[in-house]
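Late entry, evening session. Most of the bench is empty. Finally got around to the prediction I had been postponing all week. Sequence below, unchanged from the version circulated by S.P.
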Amino acid sequence: MAQESFTIKGTVLSAKDNMPIPGVSLLIQNTTRGASTDFDGIFSLDVTEGEVLVASYIGYKTQLITLTNKKEITITLIEDTAVLDEVVVVGYGARRKSDVTGSVSSVKTDELTAFPVLEAEQALQGRAAGVVVQSNNGGEPGAPIKMNIRGNTSINASSDPLIVVDGFVGATMPQAGDIQSLQVLKDASATAIYGSRGSNGVVLVTTKKGRSGKLNVELNSTYAIQTTSNSLDLLNASDFTKYQNEIRANQDNSTPYVQGDYDTDWQDLIYRTGNTSNNQLSFSGGSDKVNYYASGTYFTQDGVLVNSAYERVSFLTNLDAQVSDKLKIGLGLTGGLSKKDGVTTQSDGSVTVGGDDVVSLAMRFAPDKGIYNDDGSFSTNDKIGDQVDNPWAVATQRDDDTEIENFRANFYADYEIIEGLTFKTTFGLSNSNTFRGMYMPRTLTVTAGQGLDGRAIIRENKSKSVLSENYLTYKKEIGKGDLTLLAGYSYQKTTNKGSYSEGTGTISDSFSYYGLWTATNLINGGSGAIYVNETEIQSQFGRINYDYDDKYLLTATVRRDGASNFAENEKYAIFPSAALGWKVSSEDFLKDHETISNLKLRLSYGVTGNPSIDPYQSLASIASLYASSNGETVAAVTPNQPSNPNLKWESSYQTNIGVDLGLYNNKVLLSLDYYNIDTKDIIMINKGMPDYLGFYNDEILTNAGEINNKGIEVSLNTRNIIKDDFSWTTDLVFSKNKNTVTSLINGVDWFGDGAPSYFSVDDNYILREGEEVGLFYGWDYAGVYQGGNFPAGTATITGGVAGDPLFLDLDDSGDITNDDRKIIGNPNPDFTWGITNSFKYKDFDFNIFFQGSQGGDIFNMTNVQLNNGDANTTYDYYNNAWSSSNTDASQPRVGNNSWREISSRFVEDGSYIRLKNIAVGYTFPSENIQKLGIENLRLSLSAQNLLTITDYSGLDPEVNYYGASGDNDTSSNTVRGFDFGNYPTVKSVSFSLSVKF
C-alpha cells in the first residue's frame, strides 16, 4: 500500500556557528520535488516516510537524511573546504551571491566588530571596494560619519547612501554587534529597486534574530585607552619672543615684544588620555513557533580633548512568530538615547560667536601667556593678532550639549497565498528628537563678555517617518529555468519640525543655556529659524529575475516614484534598470576545469535618482522684512522667489561591467568592476534673475549641471593556507574613482569658500567644466623673492621686498592680484585601498589591517595661520624662513606681506598608509569552560591607528573641514581636503571580552 505523505518543517544551520543558512537546496532524491530555505534557514516540504532528503549548498558538504515520521527536523551542514557562496540580501529579497547580476559588496559580521567603533559605518573603511568612509571631525566623540559610494554624484544634494535596516528605508545604522549581515549595493541593477533614492548607493542591513533552541545569553565588552595621534612642534615662550621681534624688525616696528611670565604648552593642556567603553548584553532563543532576539548596549567615551564626551544607551528587539504553515509575522523595535558634551572645533572664523575652536587656538595662542590673568580672569590673546579667548577657557567654560532620542518600530507579515506565491506587508514608524543647547558665559571675555553678558543658544529638531510597503513575490521553475517575479507598492511620509533661539544678556551664567528666557537681547535666527515641513513619496516597483540552466542570468527592475517636494510638472519619474549575467564556469567547456572553479560575467545599465531638494523649494515664496509707514517701523512681506514648475529629479545613468573569478576550488576569489555614472539635471542655484523683477532673492533653483564618475573596483580574497590547526586568509580591496564636472550653468565657473571667514581671499575652491569637483583655487607659489627684478612670469603682492613670497603673474601685470589665481590642487585621491590578513593557530587568532589613500591634496590652512606672523608658529617654519643670512631658505621671511594667502605653498600631498587595526585573540577550548556553564569565551587585545606613514605635515591626513559656513553639513560634496582645527584622530589600545552562555 502507498504510504501517506505529510509535511515536514525544518531548519538548516551551520555547524561552524549554529547560524541559519538561507538558500539551501532541499531535494527528495531521485525526484523533482524540493524546496529551499528562507532567510531564517527554514523550509517546509511534502514528503513520505523512508524517502531520502538531499541538503546541498555551495561551500558546504552535501548531506543525505533518511526521513522518518518526524514532522520537524534540524539539519546541520558542515563547511566544505571551498569558500561559502553566501546568500546576500538585495532590495525586497535575497539571492545566492553566485546568482547576483549587480555589483554588491558583502561585509562580514566579524569585520564589523573587529575593533571598537561608535558607528558601524566606521568599520566599512577599507573593507568594501568603492566605499569611502570618514569621520566628519576626526576622533570627536559622537562625530557624524561621512560615507560615499562611487564618488560624489551631486553638487548641492546629499551624496550619502540610502540605509535600509530590516526593510525600513532611510533608517539609522544599528550597533555593529546587532548586525547579522551587511551588503553594499553599488550599481543601478542593485539600487534601481529604490528608484529616486538609489543614486548614491544603498546599504542593506539585516539585524540578528533568534532561532529555535535553548536560550543563549551573550556578553561583549570592550574598553579602550585613547591618546592623540600627533601634535605640532610649536615655539616655546623664549623662541616665540625672538620670532615676534624678528617680525617687528622686518615690518619696521620699533616697539619690542616683551616676553610674558609663562611658558605654556597649550596643546599639552587641552589634550588628555581618553577612553571608550562598550558593553552589550544580548539573549536569543525560541521554539518551533516563536523566535526572539534582544540586546542592550551602553557606550561611553571621554574624548582626548578636555570636556568632550559621549554617552549612548540603545536597545534592539526582534520577535518572529510562525503563526501557521502559511503565515509568519514579526516585530522589530530599536531605540536609543545619547548625550554629547561638545568642545568647539573646526572654526568658521566667527570669533564673536564660536570663540574660535579649541584646537586651532592651542596652536596659535601665545605661549608666554598663562591660563589666568593676575585678577583671576581668563587670559586673552591681546598682544598679537585677533583678540581671542584662550583654548583652556573655551574648552572648559563653554557648554555645548546635544541630546538625541531615536526610536523605530517595524512590523511585518509574510503569507504564502499558494505554492510559490507570497505576500509581504510591512509597516514602520521612526521618530528622532534632537536638542542642542550652547552657552558661552561671561568668563569668555571675547565671546560673551564685554557687555554681552553671556550668550545662549537652543536648537531643537524633531523628525518622524511612517513607512508602509506591500509586495508580492512569485517563484516558479520553468523547465531548466527559475523565474522570480516581484511587484509592490510603497508609501512613506516624513515630517520635520524645529526651532532656533539665541540671545545675549542673560541674568546669570548659573542657568547655562536654560537662562535664554532671561536674555535681554533676542537675536533673530533668520529665515527658517522656526519651521515645519512634510515630504510624501509613493512608489510602485517591480523586478524580474530569470536564471536559465544555472548559466544565464537576467535581472530587470523598474520603480516609479512620486514625491511631494518636486515641482508641479515633475512630481513623478520612472527609474528602470537591466542586467545580464553569464556563469561561464557552468558551461561544459569549463565545468570541470582544474584551475578555474568559477567565472561569471556581469553587465548592467540603469537609471537612479536623488531626492535633491528640501520641501517647497520649487514653489514661489515670500520673505519677511521691516518697512517704514508713517514714520514707524512695520512688518512687511515681499516676493522672495518665483516658482519653477519644471524642477525635477537629479538622475544618474549608470553602466557597470563586472567579472567574478574563482580559482583553485575558490581558494582565490577575484571580483572586478568598471563603472560609468553620468548624473544629469543637477540642481544648482541660478543667480541670473535681473533685479528689476523685484524678487528679494535673486537665486532660483534650476536643473543645469552634469557630473561624471567613472572608476574601477577590485576585491581579492585568498585562502592561502587552510589546515586543521592553522589558517591564513587575505582580503584586499582597491578603488579608483575619477569625477568630472561636465556641465555648469552657461559654462561659467562656480566658486565657494573652504577657509575661515577671516582668511584674506574668498572663493578658494572651484567647479569648472572638464575638471574634478572641489579643486583648490588660489595663487601659484614660485619661491622666495631675492630682490631686484622679478624672475620671468612672477611677481609679489604689492610692496613686496626681498624675502617675500613670489607667485606666478598670470596676467603679466607686474603685481599679484585676484586675476592671477588658478587651480592649485586636487583633493580627490587617485585611489584608496585596504588589506587584511587573518591568521588562526589552534585557539589563537591574529588579524592585521592596513588602509590607505594615494594622491589627493590637502590644503593646510593651519600652516596658513601659523605662518602669518600674528600667532605662534612651528619650528619647521621658523628655522627655514628666509633672512639676510639664510637666502637659500625654502620659506618666506617671517612677517612677510602675504597675509594668510591662499596659495600652493600650503598645498601638500595627502597620501598615507595606516595600520588601522592589529589584534590578537584567544578562544578558550570548549572542554575547559563547559563545566562552568559557558559555551564560548574569547579574550582579545587590539590597537588602532598605531602607525601612519605620510608626508603630510599637519596633524592627520584624514581631514574633513567643512568650510566657512561653520555648519557640520554631511551632504557637502565640494568642500574637500581643507584642514583647519579638526578634532585630532586618536590612537587606541583595546581590551575585549566575549562570553556566551
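Two things to note before I forget:
The longest strand covers residues 455-478.
Residues 237-250 form the longest helix (14 residues).
Will write this up properly tomorrow.
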